[in-house]
Amino acid sequence: MSTALKSLFVLIQFLILIVFCDISIYSGV
User: Fold this and answer.
1) How far apart are the C-alpha atoms of 23 and 29, rounded to whole Å?
2) Band of pLDDT at residue 29, cut at 50, 70 and 90
3) In the Cβ-directed half-sphere of 27, how many Cα atoms lie within 13 Å?
4) How far is CA 17 from CA 1, 2, 5, 29, in A?
5) pLDDT digits over 6-25, tens only?
6) Which residue has the higher pLDDT, 28 or 20?
7) Span between the terminal Cα atoms of the chain, in Å
């Protein structure tokens, strides 16, 4: 796996985590 691809994968995971946290906050959990 190339370095750029690995960085992109980490970035996507980070964005998913942020979105997941935002959903939790908005739903009042």
Assistant:
1) 9
2) low
3) 7
4) 23, 23, 18, 15
5) 999 999 999 999 999 998 88
6) 20
7) 37
8-state DSSP, 2: -
CA distances from 28 to 13, 21, 23 (A): 23, 11, 9
- Please name the amino acid found at residue 26: Y
Q: Which residue has the tokens 């942020």?
A: 18
Residue type present at position 21: C
3-state secondary structure of 21: helix
